[in-house]
Every structure is written in structure tokens, then in C-alpha cells.
Design a protein that fits this description.
globular, mainly beta, six-stranded antiparallel β-sheet, two-stranded antiparallel sheet, Endonuclease - Pi-scei, Chain A, domain 1
């Protein structure tokens, strides 16, 4: 026995026990789908086994960062769809990927329809009109800001590996595409 009361010959309690599996994930992203991290957009396929803070909606409604962890392939060959917004931006996700609608309800990518409104990760004050400036897409210039990601199309995009992960505390995150998604319940 040592002076700290531990037996130096005792096996570590964790040794020999398998690591607990990560919590189930509601995320099904194609490898090229980008997540808004603290360092900017990152493609999820290159993040397997890593962890990084991601943009999230906190319980009080504000935006903040929480740790994205346990990034892993969750399906080797899942059905993909390309979700396109009214500005022409797109993201490839599995049909079971869970987005958050503008009203807070969840919706799977395979159940989206043109015109659906998804919660956006940014906003301007009510009535704000985007300036006629090069940094804004031509379709948005001079138009009143709408604080949603409006779905223009949902198109089949083949099959491919799907990735998921866990987000600490808030259990949600934003894609660079702009829409909020659910990581786990």
C-alpha cells in the first residue's frame, strides 16, 4: 500500500472494460457537408475521431459554441439527398438527417418539400433590407431579410457514407448551409 492509500498492484478499474458506445445520433451528413465550427466551415468527412467547438443554439435562444465530439461514420452506404435553398446553396445529407424547422419542430431530410422553412443560424433586425453589395447574392440584394433557410428543392443524390456525432449540452448545431440540425435528443 502506498501513502495515498492505493494499491500499486491493483488493476485499473477501466482496463479490460469496453468503452461505452456514443449516444445515438440524428445526424446523417455526407462527407462533404460542412459544419460551422469555431474556426469556420469544416467538412465532416475529414473530422472523424476529432472534436471541435461548433455553432449552436443555446437553451436561452442565443448562439454559442459547444463541443462536437464522437465524430464517426454511422452508415457505410446511405441514401443521400441534396437540399437546395432559395439562394442556390446546397448540402448533401442522408434521408434520415434531422433538421429543425423555423417553428422549432424537427423534420427529416426525406420529408422536406419546396417552400419549407428551416431555422437559420443568423438573423438581422425585423424589416432589414440587404444592401445592393457584391458580398450578397444577386437574388438577395435589395430584398427584406427573411430569418429562415427556405427550401427550394430536395433532389436525389445517390448513395454514400454518412457521418454523425454528438454535441455537448445543446445537442444541436448549424451547417454552413445555414440550417440548424439536431445531433441527438
Amino acid at each position: 500500500m502506498t501513502t495515498n492509500g492505493k494499491n500499486p498492484d491493483a488493476a485499473d478499474a477501466k482496463m479490460g472494460k469496453p468503452k461505452a458506445p456514443p449516444p445515438p445520433t440524428l445526424t446523417r451528413l455526407a462527407g462533404d457537408a460542412e459544419v460551422e465550427s469555431i474556426d469556420g466551415p469544416v467538412a465532416i468527412g475529414g473530422m472523424v475521431g476529432k472534436f471541435v467547438p461548433v455553432l449552436t443554439r443555446l437553451k436561452d435562444g442565443s448562439l454559442g459554441f459547444r463541443m462536437m465530439r464522437e465524430i464517426r461514420e454511422v452508415e457505410p452506404a446511405g441514401r443521400l439527398v441534396r437540399v437546395v435553398d432559395d439562394g442556390g446553396r446546397s448540402v448533401r445529407v442522408g434521408i434520415g438527417h434531422v433538421f429543425v424547422r423555423a417553428d422549432g419542430r424537427e423534420v427529416r431530410a426525406g420529408d422536406l418539400s419546396p417552400g419549407d422553412a428551416l431555422e437559420a443560424g443568423w438573423t438581422y433586425p425585423a424589416g432589414y433590407v440587404l444592401p445592393d453589395a457584391a458580398e450578397y447574392g444577386a437574388e438577395a440584394r435589395g430584398r427584406a431579410w427573411e430569418p429562415v433557410v427556405r427550401v427550394a428543392a430536395v433532389e436525389p443524390a445517390g448513395e454514400g457514407p454518412l457521418f454523425g456525432f454528438t454535441v455537448n449540452e445543446s445537442r444541436n448545431y448549424f451547417l454552413t448551409f445555414g440550417a440548424r440540425s439536431r445531433a441527438q435528443r
